[in-house]
Amino acid sequence: MELELSLTTILVTFAGVFLICFMKGAFGGGFAIVGIPLLSLVMDPITAGGLLAPLFIAMDLFGLRYWKPSTWSKPDLTLLVPGLVVGIGVGYLLFRVLDHRAIAIVMAVVTLVFVGLWFRAGGNVSVKPRSAPKAVAAGVTSGITTMVAHSGGPPLAMYLLPLGLSKQVYAGTTSLFFTVGNLLKAIPWLILARPTGDVLGLALICLLAVPSGVWLGWRLHARLDQRQLYRACYGLLIITALKLLWDGISGYLA
């Protein structure tokens, strides 16, 4: 659809981008889908993807001022990032033939099962050893889903959360992971959705949301203790899964 650059469009989009920035500041990345429903009120998914591609890079680069190298789990990133690169490439090649609705439903169900197991364990994090095959699989899956649906967070979280990383290392690792991912997928998304003048203008306006949104999220992160942050992450996984489930089912019913 054509983007109508009205005051409503600007305000709703700005609010959505601010929410995404806030989530990146608080949790390092991976929960961008929480803010996307707002964008869907004023633009179609392809236009939103073209708008967000450069904004994600700005958010991530700004976020790195808080998530410094000391917060990165380098052994995990060494395993995750190659899979991410492969996944984004596969997602781009299959973008127009993949059934996005089916992917959304499958990812939602898997995520809800994962969170259900956590609840069954009484909300405790069962620390598990690092696994190279699981890390590579998580990277590939996250690459595909972030490319086709901006929903790369659940696969990464399902790998990282059971490792029992400190809250800073968890957030820093996800931040760098998605910085790499968003840099890689920016060009494919800009090819798939060439931004028009209005979209570019809207993106420039939304850049103003980046510093304050990321900073406020980081302030929240500093106030949360380890257990609170992990509970928040599992709660956000539920919201993400329900959003994916709704997108998938409503797509088939439309």
From TrEMBL:
Q: Gene Ontology cellular component?
A: plasma membrane
- PANTHER family named among the record's database cross-references: MEMBRANE TRANSPORTER PROTEIN, TRANSMEMBRANE PROTEIN YFCA
The entry's protein name is Probable membrane transporter protein
Q: Where is the signal peptide?
A: none
The Swiss-Prot or TrEMBL record describes its family as follows: Belongs to the 4-toluene sulfonate uptake permease (TSUP) (TC 2.A.102) family.
Tell me the domain of life: Bacteria
Segments traversing the membrane: 6-23, 30-57, 77-95, 102-123, 135-157, 169-193, 199-217, 229-246
| Subcellular localization(s) per the UniProt record | Cell membrane
